[in-house]
Amino acid sequence: MNREDEETLNNLIKGGLLGAGLTALLKREADGEDIAVGAILGAAILASIKASERAKETKIPLLVQEGDSLYWKHPDGHKELFKKLPTDPNHLPPKFKLS
User: Fold this and answer.
1) Same domain for 23 and 66?
2) What is the pLDDT of residues 9-49, one digit of tens each?
3) Do 30 and 54 fall into the same domain?
4) Does one domain contain both 50 and 84?
5) What is the pTM assigned to this prediction?
């Protein structure tokens, strides 16, 4: 296991412990299932934050949603409209392309 893998694993463990701890703290009668879900959510949130940080380091634009639109967010901070999303949920196509 290389150093990056160890760091990722450590971050997942930290996120899981944090999520489990918060679940136990916030819920009066947390059972094992609640704590497990909290641990998974904590690990997922921390992994998402770390992935976002690493994505920013690549200098590649990120696709972000704001309201009913998708934008390319460039490393210098400016945004470029990519696509408007359908706003009426009754008329959403079963599939649509992002390109």
Assistant:
1) no
2) 888 888 888 888 888 877 777 788 888 888 888 888 888 88
3) yes
4) no
5) 0.56
Q: Are 54 and 71 in a shared domain?
A: no
Across the beta sheet with 69-73, what order do the strands follow?
62-66, 69-73, 79-84
What is the C-alpha separation between 41 and 20, in angstroms, rounded? 9
Please name the residue ranges forming H helices in the chain.
3-26, 32-57
24 and 40 fall within a common domain: yes
Burial class (CB within 10 angstroms; exposed 0-12, middle 13-18, buried 19+) of 40: middle
Tokens of 25: 């703290």
The Cα 49–Cα 65 span in angstroms is 16
